[in-house]
Prior knowledge:
Distance between the termini: 39 Å
Order of helices and strands: HHEHHEEEEEEEEEEHEEEEEEEEEEE
Number of domains: 1
Helix content: 10-25%
Radius of gyration: 23 Å
Largest sheet: 18 strands, antiparallel, barrel
Number of helices: 5
Shape: globular
Amino acid sequence: MRPFSGFVLAAGVLLGVLAPARAAAQASPYLPLDDPRLPLIEHLIARGDVADPSPLVRPFRRADAARVLAAADTVAEGGSAELIRALRADLEASGPIQFWRVAGRAGAQAYSHVRRDVLHPLGPDGIRPYAEFTGEAVFGNFIVATRPAAEPRIADDPEWPGRRDLELIWRFPEAYLGAQFKHVTLFYGQMERNWGPAGLPGIGVSDYAYPQAEAAIELGTETFRLHALARTLEDETDDAGGRIHRYFFAHRIGVRVTQRLHLGLWETTVIAGQDREFDARYRNPLTLVLLANQYGLGLDGNVMVGLDARWRVAGRTLLEAQVALDDFQYRENAYPNRYAFTVGASGPLGRRLAWRTLYTQASSLAFRTLDPLENFTTGGVGLGRNFADLDQLTATVSVPGGTRWLFKPELTLLRQGEGRIGNPFPPPGTPSDRTPTLFIGTVERTWRAALGVSGRQGPLEVHANAGFHHVVNAGNQRGRTVDRFEGRLQATLGLSHRGALR
């Protein structure tokens, strides 16, 4: 049986039951994580001017964004009213009717280092061309979407998993088909996802790595929501040269306890083995994988358990948290605990601005285990976070520039130990005092002052982030201090055409 067959078969049966019934809602494309409208919507959510259509889960559909903007528009006053109405009009212009759309963009990318993570720069600098094509079609409860991108930059990106021997390299930021009904959404394809507070990669699922094909299902209401997704990861080889199959599964239950409080419980797992199949017990969205791992039959897997919380406290201040536990040790001389967490707060600043602070920490051995084939990675790159043995404090202010642009000043302090997600796990019998819970070896400290800009005006679209870094113990070398500029820029011009499907 193929790895996804059981998962997709169950979804297909469900689709067959639902399809004859009259649909309560039309399908809608997702709002990609690199869409310049998303930072403006996140700004309004942070201010408390707009409800979050999908708490701690991204992306959400354009129709859901339009819905919460429409609800806010009825009471909008003051500084955010114009922005709310402009975003609503923009999203409703491509609203839930049967349509097709094609679009193209072309421009350039410039970068001081080729890796996208500005806090962990790697690779050469450069300026490269960039182009993408988008095709979408929505008919009733079904949607197809694809966005191939020609991106020569990635030939130099050490985290690109594909071929590097081509003059022109293509990738797909989005390519999916879906069936969307009132309480059920089925998905097959790929797109960037992030589970956790906005502004940082999610701990269990994030958009750090390049997107991969997956089967996913989402069901429930605004009060109760279940998400589940399954992927086949890149095969690897063991020490004997055997081919190892690897799989990833994640599921999450979100509950709206009150209008102000939302909680989520999630698990992710990586299973691996020579000639191994995607065991059914690891892709059942209604079981606890941790218990299946401990009490099931056959080989086990590496499981991470997480809890999310989102609470709009008195006034419009928003508190968010994500806590994940990979392993908890209770024996003497065992390995240190493996965990990660993020806490954040945001709220309005004056009539139009918003503030946000985020603190995150990942223990020295987080995201890896004794069997490196079960690390939370694919092709050596993190499925959620890509770096452990660190903590980071970030403060931002978001400033709308009219109704199309967002400016975001940022201050960040990153402390990075020598632990890396791809490093070998300490061998059995290593005393716990030789592997600290946090900060192995010399700690690198990066102080960052930066400005981000994103927006679209007419055919022009810009994503830019530039800052000054003061790095102490650079490269984890004691006494080495480096001052440098880090920047990323993508500027494109585009055209779009849309028509009705009859």
